[in-house]
Amino acid sequence: MAKYSKKAQEKVEDVMHEFKEGKLKSGKEGKGGQVKNRKQAIAIGLSEARKKGAKVPKKQE
Question: Collapsing DSSP states into helix, strand and coil, what is residue 25?
Fold first, then answer.
């Protein structure tokens, strides 16, 4: 059984592509600066997928 939905996987894939190109920004509307950490990029992708209603496990706290 998949941990994430297909939509969530696609969103993370898109975000990782932006990260590799150096275009991914953090923070609200990208005002936080460039993302330099792979784990941070994945977290941003999952967060965006969560906002769109994709099946993603709850945040770990």
Answer: strand
SS3 37: coil
CA 14 – CA 34 distance, rounded (Å): 16
What would the pLDDT profile of 16-44 be if each residue is shown by its tens digit?
999 999 999 887 777 778 889 999 999 99
Contact 6, 47 (CB under 8 A): no
Q: Rounded CA gap, 16 and 19, in Å? A: 5
β-strand partners of 25? 34
Query: What percentage of the chain carries pLDDT values higher than 90?
Result: 33
Torsion on CA atoms 24, 32, 46, 9, rounded to nearest 10: 0
Tokens of 46: 């999952």
